Amino acid sequence: MEAFYLIVLSIAAILLILILTYIGIVMSNNKNKKGSYPPQSGSCPDYWSISTVDGSSCIIPVKTDRNAGTKTVDASGRSMTSVYDASGKLLLNSTNTAGLNTSTNSINFGDAKWTTSGVSALCAQKTWANTFGIVWDGVTNYNSC
Fold this sequence. Notes:
Strand content: 5-15%
Low-confidence stretches: none
Number of strands: 6
Structural class: alpha+beta
Mean pLDDT: 83
């Protein structure tokens, strides 16, 4: 092998080792900097709409709409959701859902009652969404509860 090729190959190998070492050091220093993920969440669950009345409440979708709760099948083979009973009656109430307004069929997720259980509002909303089978990007996959 000619001397020129040997020198070029040696320099390239040394640079590769140095660059990979630097990348490894930077990655190992950043592994301890854990943040909450995802860093932001939507104001309403997926496919729910924001109320035009007050702009802060989320309208509960009807039983047949997307993301109205976990779809289950009862003993007679009928499809049901966990937010509505078999007859289509809303199962949410002021005891199991903070900020619920039954007259407008909406939920205010900014209501102060979401923090009364001693956890953050986001963690309370995560528990609520998981209980009722609601998909809410940024809440149901939140990792700091």
